[in-house]
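Blinded run. Sample ID left blank on purpose so nobody reads anything into the name before looking at the predicted structure. Input follows.
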Amino acid sequence: MMNKAVSALSIAVWALPLVSAQTLLIRNATVLTITKGTVQNGSVLVENGKIAAVGKDVSAPADATIVDATGKYVMPGIIDCHSHTAIEGGVNEGTLSDSSMVNIKDVIDPTDVNIYRALAGGLTISNVLHGSANAIGGQTVVIKLRWGKSAQEMLFQGAKPGIKFALGENPKRQGEPSQNFFNPGLLQERRYPGTRMGVEEVIRESFTEAKNYQAEWKEYREQVAKGMHPVPPRKDLRLESLVEVLEGNRYVHAHCYRSDEILMLIRVADEMGFKIRTFQHVLEGYKVAKEIASHGAGASTFSDWWAYKIEAYDATPYNAAIMAKKGVVVSLNSDSDELQRHLNLEAAKTMRYGGLSETEALAMVTINPAKQLGIDDKVGSIEVGKSADLVLFDQHPLSGYSKPLKVWIDGHEYFDRDRDLETRPKFEQQKKALMDKLNAEAAPASRGGRPASGTAPLTEGSR
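Blinded prediction complete.
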């Protein structure tokens, strides 16, 4: 109850009047376009939510909002290709090995305060995925972090839908409950599969069913086209999404670690006639980078996470750079509500571990994840015609001392650091008033009476 109340109050305070100017000029900045070089003392003109002009000599209409960015840096909004932010109601439908019928879009929580915290770190787009308890986990969705908007309004219109696969320890752990390190004392029913080869079989079997299902519908439509009146096949929501994968209308994002399993999934995909869009986490990707590139898959990895479980031991912080140099489109993801707040600094590590340039490093959190999500024609770089998803930093974004000052999505301002600092005292006062009210309602319990609302006294630490 308290968390929901605070979330609602968060929106009430932080979503107060957002700058919604249709024409905006950010001038005198160092513009990091990512794809078109760096413009010193440059300007970015935004009109109707799109980037209208980029360069040194950019003029704007008299009614334009002017942001003087002298000494500051402008870059595209940061994109996270692997996130579990804003999910309400659980991240895994772990009762089945193939739960491809469930859709994360149905449980997006627009009041999750982590959306705002991510904005404060320069993040503007997230690929929201299911967890990794299933060989095939469910349908994914790309959102723009339009804080204060509804779940429907956060959806990235035009982004191709995805589906989450998972290999290795996580899905097979459900088949061996005693190995569940998240709940070591948990008693639960065993569920197939319990081995790595079982995970492979689940994926192959599901796509075998999907191909048969696809053929049934093809035959039905051909008969209808000939003027016949056949009984349509029984609709199967689980197989519908897998047919979309077979037909290239849904991207596959596959959680993985070990090189042998990466090769296994490539073989299964080739056998069944579909492509893996991204290998997620992919800590042993450096071992099979040529094969990943040859398949046409991208890799969305961590900068330097390792050793948090057995299959994550043979990792190296050089992984991202090695894969990139072998021709793989590489991004850095968060998988974490905390890490998503500083993906720009994660990108900086690839300069230390792999010798990438500043532009190559920043590409891993901007244009590369945009390519992996199939939205690089709309976002990921500062180019005329693209959405005005922009971040203004006080210093170079690869510096550990840098701070995002403003964040725009579609040309609308969704974060302003100065305004945030100004509104914090007001927020604290309103939060205190809310807690005092709830404690007053719970006071009868401390006197032996019956609480008015069934709540216990609240303290600052009980949020």
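Unblinding after everyone has recorded impressions. Residues 196-225 form the longest helix (30 residues).
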